[in-house]
Fold these 2 entries.
Entry 1:
Amino acid sequence: MAKSIISEGKTTNEAIEKGLKQLNVSKNKVDIKVLENEEKRSFFSILTPRVVKVELTVKEENKAEGKKETREIEKKEIILSEEEQEAAKNNVDNFMKEFLKYLPDGTKYEIEKTKTGLNINILNADLGYLIGYRGETLYAVQNILSAIAGKNIQNKVRVILDIEGYKAKREKTLEDLAEKVAKTVVRTGKAVTLEPMLAYERKIIHSKLQSHPKVETKSIGEEPRRRVVISLKK
């Protein structure tokens, strides 16, 4: 049976937000029914506290949706020909030669061809601004390089960019976080919702705990504030 709760607030929106927080789900995951509307108030009720009641019922998910919550969507790999790999490398190489003029002196880069695209590493300890807060700028640059790499190539070119080994360090930080929170969940029996993360960061958390004997993970919310919830297995 679908889970339902009654939530109250001074306005309909406030009541809904409180209910969503209690259920720990996003708005598109529930059916909402207003039980008492703030507009329907008599003259004699203006001196009493305003209360709006709404009923929130969690929608039933099909198996496909359930898998999407516990794992990030796995994209089908597109295998590139040798000619496509070389063309993609040349596209990025030409761009990087110009891009280096705007980067600190001594900056170098490496490009490795793969069957699905390119691995690019930019090397300079003074490129923190190109990484940005938790890698947001790095991933923006990666998207730009993906578009450049795929110029005049029919298949999609997958570009993986790293700067001074940032991704390996971030992955270790997230794996340590996953283990620490899992221990807390097991000890307290209470689910923990992590702060909003990028898709690749959520995937690291899911992968780290997918074989854990006592906890499970799922993603909730909408981008860019999608979060991972770690809870005890049912």
Entry 2:
Amino acid sequence: MKPIHDYVLLVEEAARYVREQFGAIPETAVILGTGLSGLASVADEESVLPYTDIPGFPELTVDSHQGTLIKGRLGGSQVLMLNGRAHLYEGYDAKEVTIPVRVLGSLGVKNLIISNACGAMNPAFSAGDIVMIEDHINLMGVNPLEGPNHLAWGPRFPDMSDPYDKELRALAYDAAMTEGIALSNGVYVSVVGPNLETRAEYRMLSRMGADVVGMSTVPEVLVANHMGMRVLAFSVVTDECDPDNLAPISIEDVLAAAARASDPLQRLIERVIARF
């Protein structure tokens, strides 16, 4: 990745470009994960920018991630939506995959809602369940905060005692009750991928205290906390990872499971945004 000075200039250039195209910037943004782009279709779009038009934004190589930045209305409020994300397994480094979040922070976004697809080691979770992330374990072996710190963005040693904002989580619980949506909570562990885990790996992750596993989100959460954003994150369970009864799964199975949870997750996020 570029030296920190070049990286900062790239983020500032991207933020400047987005502001020129969008004008006023909402305080809330949503990242749409694998199979969860349906939320973009229910938003009242005002402006759309392909990632390929925004300086420094990574080019996405996963078909289920569309790669567009949307400004629109959701839950009665203006929001930004990142329709798709880059991953480490695509060959990018941690700083590159989090450029979009750096740009959001530079634009003044205060609240970041993140969604992803995950596998569940917790036997209480089933495919199609929505899990609100209460904490995480980073097993990616990298951190987007590595290297020189840009003090204007945040402190050298950011505190992570509450990476997933307690007030926003309470708001989400209330919203789920209002909508009649079952909402669990759990610990998310991030790995690089792109392969799914072995039986032994699922056992290890479960014994470490993780409920669900995925290949994203944690780098975004680290950057968002570094820049002072409040974070709320949801995982959609797409496969059940019981090592004693492990069945093969395809990307088609993952997308189908994500689609089943798409409608309730959309309603939940809309209700949360309406209460901000």
